Amino acid sequence: MNIILLGFKGCGKTYFGKRLADKLNWPFLETDTILEELYAQEYKQNLNCREIYQVAGEVKFRSLEKEAVAQLVGVENTVISVGGGTVLDPKNVELLLKIGRLVYLEAAFAVIQKRLEKIPAYAKADSFHAIYEARKPIYESLSAHKIDTEFLDEVGILRELENQTYT
User: Fold this and answer.
1) 135 close to 84: Cβ distance less than 8 angstroms
2) Burial (CB count <10 Å: 0-12, 13-18, 19+), residue 24
3) HSE-up of 153 (CA within 13 Å, CB side)?
4) Rounded CA gap, 59 and 151, in Å?
5) Of the candidates 140, 2, 17, the residue with the CA atom closest to the CA atom of residue 83
6) Going from the N-terminus, what domains does the chain have, and what CATH number goes with each?
7) Among the listed ranges 52-61, 63-72, 97-106, 119-128, which one has the minimum average pLDDT value?
8) Three-state SS for 103?
9) Does the pLDDT of residue 123 top 90, yes or no?
10) What does pTM read for this prediction?
């Protein structure tokens, strides 16, 4: 059984994923890290996801993302964080549903914007907001347990996440 965290950038997937993994004594994996490793193996260049997207383009990025998701097959008792756009591909969603329980960490745009305001790439709130609005219905349509991170404190969010291992 795996717990798979999804949601928009800045919703807390990494932060809460690491804490849940520590609490459960499970490993923590991020598909973004796997994607970066795949890119480095193929192109002999270490770039972060944002840089890969800019250099390689969306088609190549999504292809690497699909490869990263495929590498999760066989992983057990792990907390997994998937990139914000991973669930845009129905085949990724289908595979993720087979390997674990999806948990959608929801946060209002204003909360996410405040968390990411120090990152120059996200300073252009208009395009960032449009992406958020386009993805939100996709996240909400998935067969995933939803946790609203805006109205729970850290202890409450972790309790909700831990409960997903028992249901």
Assistant:
1) yes
2) middle
3) 1
4) 36
5) 17
6) 3-32+76-153 (3.40.50.300)
7) 119-128
8) strand
9) no
10) 0.94
